[in-house]
Amino acid sequence: MDQKITIKDKQFRPFIPAKKIDEAVKKVAGQINAELKNESPVFLVVLNGSFMFASDLLKEVTIPCEISFIKVASYHGTSSSGSVSELIGLTEDLSGRTVVIVEDIVDTGVTLEKLVTVLQRKNVKQIKVATALMKPDSYKKEFKVDYVGMEIGNDFVVGYGLDYDGMGRNLKEIYVLA
User: Which neighbouring-strand residues pair with 174?
Assistant: First the structure.
């Protein structure tokens, strides 16, 4: 992981190695296992970006749980579009359940705010948020992010599920725009 890569028309340099990502995932799983040990939560995985984090995270979660997938979109190219498309895939009855939203990255919080609003209307018991990456300088929303793998600056990153125009999700490390 010591060389630059090119995705489409952009150069990216190594940023977070796979070993550090793995440590962050285990930290988040440990917090969830401890805090929700008396619950049987539904993990709501936000596609497409969260698929790698969710897969690794849920291998480490030892409490009884269910997993469901939803899809929203708020990114175009390297910047947030500022709006969220319609939610696809939320069909379960979540009344009285603890829901853990699984995000790849929390940036502005637009997607998270939309999800929380939708979930609150479904009479859930509580909403928790787990994210692989958090950009605290960009996040301006009120809702608490409960489990954070790593905090990063406002740089654009790819890899480990994160993409640039659909490319780079399959990288096991995280790269930053060079």
Answer: 16
For residue 54, give every residue at least 6 positions away whose Cβ sits within 8 Å of its Cβ, in sequence order, or none: 43, 45, 67, 102
Render pLDDT for 82-133 as a digit per residue (tens, 0 to 9): 566 567 788 889 999 999 999 999 999 988 998 998 899 999 999 999 999 9
Contact by Cβ (8 Å): 154, 138:
yes
**Residue with the two structure tokens 């939610």:** 87
Question: Could you give the number of structural domains in the chain?
Answer: 1
Q: Is residue 79 part of a domain?
A: no
Is residue 78 in some structural domain? Answer: no
Annotated catalytic residues are: 107
* Strands (DSSP E) found in 72-169: 75-76, 79-80, 98-106, 126-134, 147-151, 157-158
| β-pair type (174-177, 10-16) | antiparallel
110: CATH: 3.40.50.2020
Q: Taking the complete model, does pTM exceed 0.85, yes or no?
A: yes
Neighbours of 65 (CB within 10 A): 16
Encoding tokens for residue 99?
Answer: 């829901």
- The verdict on residue 114 lying in a domain is yes
